[in-house]
């Protein structure tokens, strides 16, 4: 063994690090999912875990941008048609 604590085989016993730091490889599909989640284009619909600890995540979304009509329809989703007609007539 040498004086510097190195056995001469290229591995430093002091820090135990002989691997280079490398970034994980991310596929284009994984990037698309990440971007979709971060931009709220995708939402998690359900998460399933089975006995073998396998996990399934169902994502749902649309590439189409919401129009004003879509936004109004979301707001009026809980209102019945009869209430909507009555409100329109009384207006």
TrEMBL record:
Residue ranges of region Disordered? Answer: 1-24
Q: Where is the composition biased (Low complexity)?
A: 1-10
Return the Basic residues bias intervals. 11-20
Q: What is this protein called?
A: Uncharacterized protein
């Amino acid at each position: 063994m040498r004086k510097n604590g190195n056995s001469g085989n290229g591995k430093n016993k002091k820090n135990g690090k002989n691997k280079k730091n490398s970034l994980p490889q991310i596929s284009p599909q994984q990037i698309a999912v990440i971007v979709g989640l971060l931009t709220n284009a995708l939402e998690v619909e359900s998460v399933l875990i089975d006995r073998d600890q396998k996990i399934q995540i169902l994502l749902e979304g649309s590439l189409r941008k919401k129009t004003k009509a879509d936004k109004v329809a979301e707001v009026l989703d809980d209102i019945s048609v009869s209430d909507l007609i009555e409100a329109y007539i009384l207006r």
